[in-house]
Write a structure and sequence with these properties.
- The structure is a single chain.
- Strands 2-1-3-4-5 form a 5-stranded parallel β-sheet.
- The chain is 40% helix and 16% strand.
- It is an alpha/beta fold and 147 residues long.
- The radius of gyration is 14 Å and the shape is globular.
- The chain has one domain: 3-Layer(aba) Sandwich (Rossmann fold).
- The relative contact order is 0.18.
């Protein structure tokens, strides 16, 4: 994305994973702005600009959503469904980033129009490399229409 920093919405309830993801993006030096929410309800509040996220200056529309599946309050599958059925949100790429290798989770994510499904590696170096590659692909190489 040329010209302005990309906005990433990170939906992650595991603080250690969130810190690692944010640091890995910082290492790319792409100048991204990452907004972190820690449960499914908060993710939808952010995306639909409800409650404390009503001000669009404080909750800009993301260019990319990184979505864990195992979330409190509302799981990632439900969040994905809501995003992809919204005319205002469905064009935002959603990358599922989870520990689940379950074929059922993978099939359900893609049937709900996930743009990608990545399993978090256990190895720290592999995790960091995957996040850097993910950012480079979705935010630099991938072409999209800006609305």
């Amino acid at each position: 994305m040329k010209g302005k920093p990309a906005v990433i919405l990170l939906v992650e309830d595991d603080e250690a994973h969130a810190i690692l993801i944010i640091r890995s993006f910082e290492d790319t030096k792409l100048g991204n702005k990452i907004y972190l929410v820690s449960d499914g309800e908060e993710a939808l509040d952010y995306l639909f600009r409800r409650g404390k996220y009503a001000d669009k200056e404080k909750s800009p529309r993301p260019d990319l959503i990184l979505l864990d599946l195992q979330l409190p309050k509302l799981d990632g599958h439900e969040v994905l469904k809501e995003v992809k059925k919204s005319d205002d949100l469905k064009s935002i790429p959603v990358v599922v980033l989870t520990v689940s290798e379950s074929e059922g989770d993978i099939a359900q994510a893609y049937s709900n129009y996930a743009n990608s499904y990545l399993v978090k590696p256990v190895d720290f170096g592999e995790f960091s490399e995957m996040i850097r590659d993910l950012g480079h692909y979705w935010l630099v190489l991938n072409k999209k229409i800006n609305y």
